[in-house]
Amino acid sequence: MTRTALRICPLCEATCGLTLTIDDGRVTGARGDRDDVFSAGFICPKGASFAELDNDPDRLAQPLIRRDGVLVETTWREAFDVVADRLGAVIGTHGGGSVGVYLGNPNAHTVAGSLYPPLIIRGLGTRQVFSASTLDQMPKHVALGYMFGSPVAFTVPDLDRTDYLVIIGANPLVSNGSLATAADFPGKLRALRDRGGKLVVIDPARTRTAELADRHLAPRPGTDAALLFAVVAVLFEEGLVATDLGGLAEHVNGVDDVRRLAADFPPESVSAYCGVPADEIRALARELASAPTAAVYGRIGTCTVEFGTLTSWLVDVINVLTGNLDRPGGAMFPLGATAPAPRPPKPGSGFRTGRWHSRVSGHPEVLSEMPSAALAEEIDTSGDGQIKAMITIAGNPVLSAPDGDRLDRALDSLEFMLCVDPYLNETTRHADVILPPPSPSRSPHYDFALNNLAVRNNVRYSPPVLPLDGRLDEAEILSRIALILYGVGVDGDPALVDEQVIATTLAKETGDKDSPVAGRPVDELTAMLPEGPGYERRLDMMLRLGPYGDAFGARPDGLTLARVKAAPHGIDLGPLQPRLREVLRTPSGRVELAPEPLRADVARLNAALGRDVDGFVLIGRRHLRSNNSWMHNVPALARGSNRCTLQMHPDDVAELGLADTAKVKGPGGEVLAPVEPSPGMRRGVVSLPHGWGHDRTGSRQQVASGQPGVNVNQLNDGHSLDPLSGTAVLNGIPVDIAPAD
Ligand SMILES: Nc1nc2c(c(=O)[nH]1)N[C@H]1C(S)=C(S)[C@@H](COP(=O)(O)OP(=O)(O)OC[C@H]3O[C@@H](n4cnc5c(=O)[nH]c(N)nc54)[C@H](O)[C@@H]3O)O[C@H]1N2
Ligand SMILES: Nc1nc2c(c(=O)[nH]1)N[C@H]1C(S)=C(S)[C@@H](COP(=O)(O)OP(=O)(O)OC[C@H]3O[C@@H](n4cnc5c(=O)[nH]c(N)nc54)[C@H](O)[C@@H]3O)O[C@H]1N2
Ligand code: SF4
Ligand SMILES: [Mo]
Fold this sequence. Notes:
InterPro entries: Asp_de-COase-like_dom_sf, MoPterin_dinucl-bd_dom, Mopterin_OxRdtase, Mopterin_OxRdtase_4Fe-4S_dom, Prok_molybdopt-oxidoreductase. By secondary structure, the chain is of the alpha/beta class.
């Protein structure tokens, strides 16, 4: 029997609505849901391959445990018993602080990954917490934290309404957008041009997005902070700063400090370092200032670089100075349906990092995390506080983080390792226990994080499309781990975990005079939550407490989970609204345009300007039919141009006399890669994609291991970090290129 079912795609940040075809209890096809309020039918090749991914025969169906050195299938019961015994033993001997946790990217795309990992971390009481954030967007969090008082006060470009969009270090035609959730990003860029708007792309490579642009600046990798500072310098020097900052002036501190700092970076002084003519920088500043509305949007190329936090900060400095912060067509603050309901404006306690430091290298804590680049050394350096056991959830740091070979050896030395992951891959092959979550079709979907980054407010929920049939859903897997850590044991009822969260949250809300449920009895509210899985009860609670919620009956027209379920194509919550005042949580109650830690870091940038700019630098790239390390096992996605090649300018290829294969040597090691002459590359810049290197023994991804590629992160020794955010420098790494001998 054939039927269809709706499911939000979990495979990237665009959150497209899919219509799945289901035959005899399995997904057999996927197309875009034309009635989806957010994506209106848009889909990419990954979404179209949902069925193959969902049915991948290499996906683990049963837990694995290590017996006599070999990973073998076992029952859920035995797997949890082993976790309780072995993890209990490590904690008993060395304490919960000796257990490290690594959270990977898909946690941002699953209900379980959004709701339960904090409970596991709390249960351990560990400070050894690592995630893909320090390989990705942490600089943006830090910049937002210092400027607005909240590290999650994300600014996104108002794509549908802007007149002038500057995309810096992002390639949304391939990535489909990141930290700016927009289904059909490509279509939105074309619509911008169709309505007479302009697109500028700043990227050392002539990417597919750059090809669409009216203006493409190709700086040397890693130099964007200087380039953006030069834009700021021109805004001041030429009197182009928006009058009254477009109405925001009374809410902004530090404009004069920024003016003083920028004075050291006129275009003529940074031009040689950035490799961009000064007049191009001046033209960009003038156009930004004169556009009716404009938005600057930065992504990976602004984050995983030497000056990541400075660059992320300057993106929003320009949005403020051109009068484009918090106004339609500019850079705006989305408001998701499960965000806390806005409270009256009030000063906050501010943002800081470094409340504790990493054991080996003394890196400051950022958002309670340690840099992923420091994971290996925290495991392989003995002494007090050394990591003795690891829990990884949805992560593959052996390929994603610097120096995978060292991490490989480190993971091998652990007393115990638990992985929650559907695949036996480069990282999970070190596990003593692997607990596999069910495939996406058997999992619920709600975008807790990404809805707060959407370029148009909306709410959508997908319940599981297929039954679990004996599998354990990931919420239950993670809850059971938490119960073990809380001492409840393997027989505890996983619902306890959710009920505890509900009780705590409602107690806090009812005790907050500014909450929509202030003063109400917790029991009365709890009784209003629907029967069903704990994660649905929590989602209902969050929706009802949220900005559009029914406030548990007090606003009868408001959202509940039942209402959201009754609208399977989603509910549109309208275009983004100005809301700066309710977002601000700095101690001053104002935007801090020149926060002290950023001012202090400018000296480092100043020093870099005089640097020798010879030699090759390495950058990364993504492919439309790939997602980090884990989709190379789907045949339809692993074909054609999706290959791990070294792209470089044909003149560089000729000058070095390269044949088919090049030897690339970086601070952390060397790899051999096929050369792909690419006229779109800047001279002196080479590109290799990440997530490859599937040639390690002991993994179980047959398609991927047939076309393994090399691990670009082996070129990186992990010592190069953006100091303010602990984010690894993954772009702009000096490398030597030579013919393979
Ligand atoms: N050189 C270089 N390195 C990079 C980057 C770069 O641009 N260049 N990009 C960085 C970025 S932005 C990121 S986000 C990181 C990603 O770093 P990671 O998150 O460590 O790596 P992924 O490859 O995304 O691994 C995802 C893992 O989750 C598993 N998984 C998939 N679905 C589920 C699920 O539903 N539940 C669970 N529990 N597991 C699941 C997969 O099998 C896989 O093991 O890589 C970073 N590394
Ligand atoms: N198809 C596909 N989609 C994905 C992913 C994927 O692997 N494949 N991964 C997902 C994830 S985890 C993320 S975080 C997002 C990332 O989303 P994006 O940031 O849009 O993706 P990237 O392709 O990494 O784009 C980064 C761009 O920065 C450029 N760049 C590198 N160094 C510099 C620099 O120093 N300065 C400037 N100005 N530019 C630089 C690169 O050439 C590249 O074009 O994509 C998500 N979507
Ligand atoms: S763009 Fe992203 S969310 Fe949309 S179908 Fe492709 S992978 Fe899925
Ligand atoms: Mo990412």
